[in-house]
Write a structure and sequence with these properties.
Layout lengths: L1 H16 L17 H6 L23 E2 L26 E4 L10 E2 L13 H11 L6 E2 L1 H13 L7 E2 L2 E2 L1 H11 L28 H24 L20 H10 L3 H6 L6 H17 L22 H10 L17 H14 L9 H9 L3 H16 L7 E6 L4 E6 L2 E11 L8 E10 L3 E2 L2 H14 L3 H5 L2 E3 L5 E2 L16 E4 L10 E4 L8 E2 L13 E3 L3 E3 L2 H9 L3 H9 L4 E14 L3 E3 L5 E3 L6 H16 L1
Parallel strand pairs: 1-19, 7-19, 9-17, 16-18
Antiparallel strand pairs: 3-4, 5-6, 7-8, 8-9, 9-18, 10-15, 10-19, 11-14, 12-13, 12-14, 15-16, 20-21
Helix pairs in contact: 3-6, 4-7, 5-6, 6-7, 9-13, 16-17
């Protein structure tokens, strides 16, 4: 009965609170190009201002298909092999990673209080600590406002003290804060200023010190509530490609529960994500930290330098060690296990850059020593990074939703927590990344036309048109004036234009259309959508970061069948009709475009992915910067 009452109280309070969120802060200036940017991109010098192209521009005139499909057999599409034609085109933000600047914090002391000091001794001590200048935890302005309001509402009576001593509720909360590392958080951020450690003796002989402990414990609990519910960092301050509003609990609502609930620690713990992936990450984190304490006896032996294309019996051990450190290093099926292939060479380069040794992609004595001396800290950091990212997600992803993990180059249709369908995808290049955001899929376009973005017209087509004004005519593209008239590309004096071209360019539907046969729309501020592609060979690559931001799907016909609830024959018939039509989904499907460099497989085992956009390092730097700012 006691457990039922406790659960009921916590559930009721959580239901009241979880609707509150705090506004995101503005983004800061971007970092210098990283190793990964130099490795994959021609230039990191991209404009910060991202021009929006209309997501409706390429299909607004298409007829909307009212569902009354007649099953019809159609032959399979012919495979068309052409050079990579990318339907994206925004200039992007370069790598887009930002030097994290922690938000401004304010002290919980030296406050001007409107009322007179209370007569009660314990309340007067709290009042005095708030009004006097002195050391205190520093908090966000919204948190200080909530704390001052709550203490004023209770006439400055302590929240965690009973008869001058820390109450059982307070001890439970202090113990929970001490164990914050188990949740991927930083316990030091929640240590009250009057304590040297969480297990240090309490200053129960000092009324003023205990009053300060009460205030700081309230502030620390409130900080934990925010961090657990929505993350320690504002995503917008980490990357220009983050368009995420974390579900931070509102500070006044959280403090109301903390001040009045008999189960405050349970309430705080319940603010952490409940997604199964979070539980798997938490378990893996505990296992890795336990492994860190154990001595290593499986060191890689010294030997000759092995370059790309060479073979050595130590290569399987190298692959195993890299995998432990969070690098993807599995050999291809049928490959000689002793071969240092091109993909392993790339992984070695990434490790060498991280380890601070000469970047060669070969296995030499410095790299062997670095592999032997590296702990599991790389994987631990990856788990901390991705537990943070999980906190940014909506708590309710939907009963049926589409989940794209850019780092895994994979999309899943999830239903009732299980994968309904899985496919490979292609995502943005490091200098034109796919944004992170959530939206809803609304429609599918059959045989779409492609409205070429201005950035591609200016940066890629204009130089060719200056040499050959008929280039677009030869490509089968339409040139459209601002009045909507279609003209020949030869009729334009392309030498007269530079950064702005007053013409639209459209690629009609067809086998070599950059969007392929199908486009899947979830209208958003980034004009990102999912679509087919004629460049089928790119799906065979392990690293599939080739687009200007949109997400290309390996099996779009199957995808259309899944999201529309049609048979494969119905989808094929609509495509083979050659007409461009837009079909609205009977029910919108949530779409979550994410970036996770660690994610569990279907058995709950952790899989680590390459940090293709360099966002892990940004998060790791942010953790260090935050600890300094918070003290």
């Amino acid at each position: 009965m006691k457990t039922f009452v406790r659960s009921s109280v916590i559930a009721a309070m959580a239901a009241v609170l979880l609707g509150g969120t705090a506004p995101a802060e503005a983004a800061s200036s971007r970092q210098k190009p990283s190793f990964i940017e130099k490795l994959f991109s021609k230039s990191g010098n991209h404009a910060a201002g991202k021009k929006r192209r209309s997501v409706f521009g390429s299909f607004k005139d298409d007829p909307v298909y009212i569902e009354d499909p007649t099953p019809n057999y159609a032959p399979k599409r012919k495979k068309v092999t052409i050079v990579d034609a990318d339907p994206g085109g925004d200039q992007g933000y370069g790598m887009g990673n930002l030097t994290y600047v922690p938000p401004k914090l304010v002290p919980l002391s030296g406050v001007s209080l409107a009322t007179a000091a209370p007569a009660d001794a314990a309340a007067a001590a709290i009042y005095s600590q708030l009004a006097a200048d002195g050391p205190s935890l520093r908090v966000l302005p919204a948190a200080r406002e909530a704390l001052l309001a709550e203490y004023a509402a209770r006439s400055y009576r302590p929240i965690w003290l009973a008869d001058g001593k820390l109450s059982a509720r307070g001890k439970d909360v202090l113990a929970l804060l001490a164990s914050a590392g188990e949740e991927g958080l930083q316990p030091q951020a929640y240590l009250p200023t009057g304590l040297t450690a969480f297990d240090a003796p309490l200053p129960e002989y000092d009324a003023a010190a205990m009053a300060r402990l009460d205030i700081d414990l309230s502030a620390a609990a409130l900080r934990y509530a925010r961090d657990a519910s929505g993350g320690q960092f504002s995503p917008a301050l980490l990357s220009r490609y983050h368009d995420v509003s974390p579900p931070w609990v509102a500070p006044d609502r959280a403090l109301r529960v903390l001040a009045n609930s008999p189960f405050a620690a349970d309430y705080l713990k319940g603010l952490n994500p409940t997604h199964p992936a979070y539980a798997a990450m938490k378990k893996a984190l505990a296992e890795l930290r336990a492994a860190e304490a154990e001595p290593k006896d499986d060191k890689i032996a010294d030997g000759e330098i092995v370059k790309k294309g060479g073979s050595d019996p130590r290569i399987p051990a190298v692959r195993s060690r890299l995998a432990e450190l969070g690098f993807t290093a599995e050999p291809l099926d049928g490959m000689d296990p002793d071969l240092l292939d091109a993909e392993l060479s790339v992984q070695l380069r990434l490790f060498q850059k991280q380890a601070g040794v000469k970047v060669t992609g070969a296995l030499g004595p410095q790299t062997v020593a670095a592999l032997n001396n590296a702990g599991t800290s790389g994987s631990v950091d990856k788990l901390l990074d991705n537990m943070e990212r999980l906190r940014w997600l909506p708590r309710d992803l939907g009963n049926r939703y589409i989940f794209v993990n850019q780092a895994a180059f994979e999309a899943r249709v999830m239903k009732d927590g299980k994968p309904e369908w899985i496919t490979r995808v292609i995502v943005g290049k490091p200098n034109t990344q796919t944004s992170v955001f959530s939206d809803e899929m609304e429609m599918v376009v059959f045989n779409p036309s492609w409205g070429v973005p201005q950035s591609i017209i200016v940066n890629e087509y204009l130089p060719k048109l200056r040499n050959d004004p008929g280039y677009l005519d030869k490509m089968g593209f339409k040139v459209v004036t601002q009045q909507g008239k279609v003209i020949s590309s030869r009729a334009v004096s392309w030498d007269s234009y530079g950064a702005k071209v007053p013409f639209g360019v459209q690629q009609p539907p067809g086998a070599d259309n950059a969007l392929g046969e199908l486009k899947f729309l979830f209208p958003n501020a980034h004009d990102i959508y999912m679509h087919d592609t004629p460049s089928r060979n790119l799906f065979e690559q392990q690293v599939r970061a080739f687009s200007h931001g949109c997400v290309r799907v390996q099996d779009p016909r199957h995808f259309a069948s899944v999201v529309l609830g049609w048979t494969p024959e119905e989808v094929a018939a609509k495509i083979e009709s050659k007409s461009s039509e837009t079909v609205r989904l009977k029910q919108k499907i949530p779409v979550h475009i994410t970036y996770f460099t660690a994610w569990p497989d279907d058995q709950g085992n952790m899989v680590y992915y390459n940090d293709i956009y360099g966002r892990d390092r940004t998060l790791e730097n942010a953790r260090s910067a935050t600890l300094v700012a918070q003290r």
